[in-house]
Amino acid sequence: MTYMFEHPQYTRIPVQGNERFTKYGLYAYSEGFITQRVQQRSFNGAPVLFIPGSGGSYKQVRSLASVALRKGIDNNWQAHLDYFSVDLNEEFSGVFGGYLHDQTAFIELCVQEIVRLYGARGRSTRMFVVGHSVGGKLAQAIVADGRENIVRHVAGIVTISAPVDKPVVLLDHYHQSFYNRIEQAWKVNRSISTGLKASTDKPLDGILFITIGGGIRDIIVHDGLTSSQFADLHAMTHNIPKVWLSVDHLCAMWCLQFVLVMNRFFYSMIIPNGRNSYGFVEEKVKQFEQAQRFLVQNADDDDDDAVSNRKEDMERIIIHHPEQEDWIEDIRRSFTERYRAGLERTRVQMIRIVPDKPAHRFLRVEVLNAEQTANWLSGCAAIEVYGNSRMCQKSYSLANYTLQVPSSKFDRFGALLDLHELKQRNPRWTHVLIKIPRTFKPVQFSVDVFNPAQREINITMPYWFDYRKRTILQDASPDDSFYRITIDAMTQTHQTIALDLKAISCDGVKGTSVVKVHVPWSEGYDRYAFQEDLNQTTVYIYPPIEKPQEKEPSDSTVFEEKQLPIYVDVYFTPGCRYHIRYGQSLRVSIARVVQQYFMLIPAHCLALLLLAFKDQLSQTTPDEPAFVVGKLRSSLTKPGPLLVLLAGTSLLGKFLSLFKAIPRIESFSTPLPVSILIHLASLGVLLIATLALWGAIAFCANFAHKIILRLIALPIPVMSSTFLSCIHKFPLAIAVLLVAIALTACGGVSLLCAAAVYFVLLSKAYEDYLENFVFHTARRIAARLFGARERDGADSGSPARRRRRRRPANETGDELMVINFHLPLFFLVILLALLNVPSVITWAKNYHYSNTLQPDPSLVPALAVLACLAVLWQLNTPRNLYGYEVLAALLVIVAFVSVLYCQVHVYRLNYSMAIVFIAITLHQIFAPKRREVEEVVDSDEKEQNEDNNKVAC
């Protein structure tokens, strides 16, 4: 964690033009005696503006700002940073997008206010904007329009754990329009960036744009959402040097390793900007160089920039002093040297380059705890002699081949070189040199020369149902320090392999393993995982983004790179024997599915519910005189709706995708195993909810009444009871009251109240059903016990012939069928209310600013559904009508549309459910009634009535 030395102080800065945004604010961070300077509005450091994320506080800047302030004090306040933070009222902008436009407008005012704080420097003041979570998208938004008064003051944007190009979940259309607007604006005003290769003739090309992700521990914003096509550089915290760790969503703001690296990056760009004032370097090229230095590892061998940089490094000459150095050449191919007391003289280890021998092709070298310089690895032609040793008077640096190896205790550097390729580029070279300067600290280095074909292991991703563990390396040699594992057929983001590394035996050292995962089609997602002082560890391997489909590429080189398999480099501790096993990880695969596809469940729940409702309405044939509604639980447990939804959506997705005029199908991009899992999970949710609701209706109806009475909290108990009875007797008036709540407060609040009222009505219907059931049961028992006496009484005093008419079930007091009809509608109301809970939370949080939520994405669907409920509650539904077949067909259509078009755009489900309610209401109002048939009583009663008529005559 990041610790402090003094209490944090947040000084509010008045913002001009802030009359419309009284709930927002701008703060400057300070501690101790620095607070007085801030209160006097005296700023002369390089400005950094922090934007919090969804539900985030402006105080989250504390860790970044506190470390930077301590660094400034250590520098005698010469070069320092001024941190500012935006207070966005801790609004949940990640799930409610109605305030994103206001937040963007306020942040633009904050940028202009910070520029004014620097006085005469205002014209040349440029700041970095750091955005966490949704704050990263807001940082993009303030420059999206390309306005000069904002763009010229923003030197760079750094997003941390932010959903940049896609939101985590779309619960309202405001989010969708916000992201679309920024996407279009950046396409117009900025080139698609690939490092610094993009052109600089557009307004936003001069802004350095960096995206950073948290990795596997961030369960809110997963890896694939943190990168952007416009980013100059993308990095993951587990691949950033000196960090090497995955961080969760909030930890990114206070993780000490990450905070230190970020501040070092900002400090590396500070330059004097006038007398006693500082700013950031203007040139984007220099900014990008510092970003690469602090935030990424060296590039891969095949990268064009890496090749050119290595050519430049090779031109850098290193002069050696043999009188101060020990030159040692060892003919062993693999060995490790440890010096626990340090080195009295500089040691230069010579590794011979042997061409045309496969066993001498690759060199893996690693140095531990040595004072590293840019000259520790080099190549030369050893044609000179000093004493009894061959040596090089000068050599050429290979610094760009070196990589820092993750370690929490020591400085570890390593390199992996293709000696044959090195010989082809430099025919005169004979040796590679490892130079370790004199030191009093314990130091260690290891050399491993090997044939890469013997160290490469090829595996294939197991089938989705195969979870067996397989051994791929039984007993590695103690001298083996490197293995490469290639994984084929791993293309989907939910596929996960668990790689088990176990140190069987170690020669006096503790087992340390480092694993590097490289996914060719996802730039910036290389991942390091390391474990120290452990004999066994497990590394989970998965692709952060889906592998692109094979198609004709415009750049064949880039295309071939993207089609390569995933490879995993495993670095062992010399002196240890290792055992490697692998297998598919069910636990992590399910966790990845939940993390990336949880937002698909509402659409599938709605589809399955509508198909079950359709089955309930289709249990009566058109020629029957009476209409009967089936049971919801029985309809849900039938395999038909599930199979129809699975097969139908898959076929429709492939068929409709052939037509360009039809919008893109969302379900087509979801893997079939994931779709099956989502379907089953949705079905389980509905079954559990159905059983829970029946239990609540059967056993908790009276308890629910008491809770509602307490919620009403009227001071007079009689009035509370009267109000509750009004719910049963005057549902239309209650519906009108709910509409008034929607118009004056929030649509989501009215939907939650509607769900409570609906539950009361269902529980009342169940009570009536129980009363009738008990009454009819008692009458039948009495008829069996006293049937003969009743018949005698009927013979003596019975009136003329008795008849009864068979009427629709709901008109005969069959409340159970009424409950079966309204139960799916109640679930629709609950689902609609749950989807609009973010609106309710936002309304409650801002209630003291405004009684009505503006804008309210839940208002229109709420009004439509409440108007329909007013009719359905007032009518004696379900009625014995024609047209239930057409209504059932409409339910099927809406079910398929929900799965095809509402999985990602979840807010569309509001309108799907509103359409269902409108269709059901119109059908109950305008559909013609079925014919009614009179039925006489059974034959015994018929004969008895005839006898009574004769007696009467």
UniProtKB/TrEMBL annotation:
Top enzyme class, one word, equals: hydrolase
Claim: Cytoplasm is one of the keywords in the record:
no
- For whether the record's keyword set contains Transcription regulation, the answer is no
Q: Where are the transmembrane segments?
A: 674-695, 707-727, 734-761, 816-837, 858-875, 881-902, 909-927
Q: Where is the protein situated, by its record's location annotation?
A: Endoplasmic reticulum membrane
Q: Where is the GPI inositol-deacylase PGAP1-like alpha/beta domain?
A: 43-269
Note the superkingdom of the native organism: Eukaryota
- Recorded protein name is GPI inositol-deacylase
**Family assignment from sequence similarity:** Belongs to the GPI inositol-deacylase family.
- Mind telling me which GO cellular component terms the entry cites? endoplasmic reticulum membrane
Q: Taking every annotated instance into account, which residue ranges of this chain make up the domain GPI inositol-deacylase transmembrane?
A: 673-919
Biological process annotations from GO: endoplasmic reticulum to Golgi vesicle-mediated transport; GPI anchor metabolic process; protein transport
Native source organism of the sequence: Anopheles sinensis (Mosquito)
E.C. no: 3.1.-.-
Cite the InterPro entries for this sequence.
Answer: AB_hydrolase_fold, PGAP1-ab_dom-like, PGAP1/BST1, PGAP1_TMD
Function field: Involved in inositol deacylation of GPI-anchored proteins which plays important roles in the quality control and ER-associated degradation of GPI-anchored proteins.
Annotated signal sequence range: none
Record's SUPFAM superfamilies?
alpha/beta-Hydrolases (SSF53474)
This protein's UniProt keywords: Endoplasmic reticulum, Hydrolase, Membrane, Protein transport, Transmembrane, Transmembrane helix, Transport
| Annotated GO MF terms | phosphatidylinositol deacylase activity
Q: How does it sit in the membrane?
A: Multi-pass membrane protein
